[in-house]
Amino acid sequence: MMRKVCPASLRKYGFCGVLALVYACRLAVPGSELAFDATLEAMASILGEKKRKQWQGLQRRSVHKKRRSITFPDTLRVLSHHRARCSHRVQPIGTRKAGLSVKRWLATSAAANTSYIVHTKKHAMFVDVGRSKRAWKLYDQQGRVTHSDLPTLSKKGGVLMKKATNIIEIGAPVAPVP
Fold first, then answer.
1. Which of 164, 10, 178 is nearest to 82 (CA)?
2. pTM
3. Neighbouring-strand partners of residue 166
């Protein structure tokens, strides 16, 4: 399934973790800064706090470029809140000392017809795997990338070379989505 990508006007903000949750919970992808701010307000209320300093947006003159600041436990709390829209299960990564790169995980552990949120040390992304393991699409605030972009993504510092710290498998909605 093709998903709507993040508009160019919002790509300057590092909100990869929030965007991964938007995709996983089947929420509307924000199309403007105003809609983006409303999405951050909704996430902050789910987390039971005022809008985080990094998430201050249209009300302040200096907008933080790095708005992500969503941790793995916060991701699980938001997914639990939206359990009617999506089920989730944390996948064990293993205890390898060197860690598991996103590329290696895609090749060995990702299953066909599934979706995931993959956290690395400083990034989060939504991964949609199609009918075959090679038919994956990776979504973050930069847009959508596929298996055909593998050479670029596999370069030093590329997103596929980063070590996965946490992986959450996203399941079908528990209840019909309104």
1. 178
2. 0.82
3. 119
